[in-house]
Amino acid sequence: MDKKIKATITGLGAYLPERILTNSDLEAMVETSNEWIVTRCGIEERRIARADEFSSTMGARAAQTAMQQAKITANEIDAIIVCSMTPDYLCPSTAALIQNELQATRACAIDIQAACSGFLYGLSIAKAWIDSTVFKNILVIATEKNSAYIDYKDRGTCILFGDGAGAAVVQKGGPGYAIDYVSIGADGSEANLIVIPASGCRMPASEETVKNGDHFLKMNGKEVFKHAVRRMEAAAKECLDKTGISQEELGWLIPHQANLRIMEAISKRFQIPWERVYRTIHKYGNTSSSTVPIALAEFDAEKAAKHNEHLLLVAFGGGLTWGASLLTKVDA
Ligand code: UT7
Questions:
Q1: Quick check: 215 pLDDT over 70?
Q2: Distance from the CA of 183 to the center of ligand 1, in angstroms?
């Protein structure tokens, strides 16, 4: 492994709304059961944002915690990258709203959209900006108010998704989690598997679209499942190949929390013991791009990783998109 000073996650934060939607709440809304949701997905409950909480406000809260941990002020932030498939608006960007909320007046602000893989895409961009010395202090924020796009009559999606935000400060050098490598990819030929049909210029919102529920997220879960494991496995392998880290050297897996069975499949492929797979899915469900930074922030708060231990992040989502990253814990 090369010894140069790397782009490093130096601060982490998470924000979860207070309101809890349990499986028994959902049993009263659609034809489902706690038993089906727990055994097929691993979810017990998820968080739902208040009417006056948005992707921007949740993202800003997570970012404030990350900045405190990194001991950095808003004025020092050079760039804000927001990953969200549920932005406050198509225009202006959620990043611009967060820039204002944080009073990070020096920072440029950009939204990126890579669905559930967004945080990995954000890390990849932040790493490139740090490595090329374009910027020094970058906020990567993943934030989702999925509940705004979920049809609570569709049992194929409403049992899965929740709201929440996670954030990371990325700087050159540690202490923190050195970003050794990020692999990202996409397959637009399968774009139809996860779609919000009336969410852009192709199908402008109208009385008709609302009547048909076209403003809600539609997912072919079974098909998505088939692609998820294969794509995440390939991206993770690329991280190992490029860094020269072996499978046996992996300390922890911090995967996208979409389905417990997908997480199990990845842990088996890389022979990572189940107790070393960090899980939040039971309490937060699938928060799209936010699952990985929320899990990483909670993992970090538990101080689970030792100096020099390697972490593997993997994610998969609409687009289709996917990503993986190899991190190394670096103590002060
Ligand atoms: O984060 C973005 C990426 N997204 C993902 O990675 C999601 C990947 N997909 C999945 O996690 C799973 O496909 C789901 C959890 C969405 C669905 O699980 P599944 O094991 O693929 O179920 P299925 O769609 O094959 O349905 C199996 C059965 C069907 O009944 P029959 O036809 O066998 O009688 C469904 O109608 O389960 C039924 N079913 C349900 N039953 C109770 C589907 N949804 C539910 C439900 N409650 N909520």
A1: yes
A2: 28
- Measured CA distances, 148 to 50, 97, 158, 163, 272 (Å): 10, 18, 11, 9, 36
Per-residue model confidence as pLDDT tens digits over 295-320:
999 999 998 899 999 999 999 999 99
Q: Quote the pLDDT of residue 303.
A: 82
What CATH number belongs to 180-273+306-330?
Answer: 3.40.47.10
Query: Ligand 1 centre from 129 Cα, in Å?
Result: 40
On the question of a common fold for 7-176 and 180-273+306-330, the answer reads: yes
CA angle at residue 55 from 49 to 58, to 5 degrees?
A: 70
pLDDT grade for 270, boundaries at 50, 70 and 90: very high
- Quick one: pLDDT at residue 2? 56
Please spell the DSSP secondary structure of 197-255, one letter per residue.
Answer: TTSSTTS---HHHHHHTTTS-EE-HHHHHHHHHHHHHHHHHHHHHHHT--GGGEEEEEE
In the block, residue with structure tokens 């010894």: 3
Domain ranges of the chain: 7-176, 180-273+306-330
Catalytic residue among 116, 146, 239, 310: 116
Q: What is the pLDDT of residue 304?
A: 81
Mutate to test the pocket of ligand 1, among 24, 30, 40 (most ligand atoms within 8 A of CB): 40
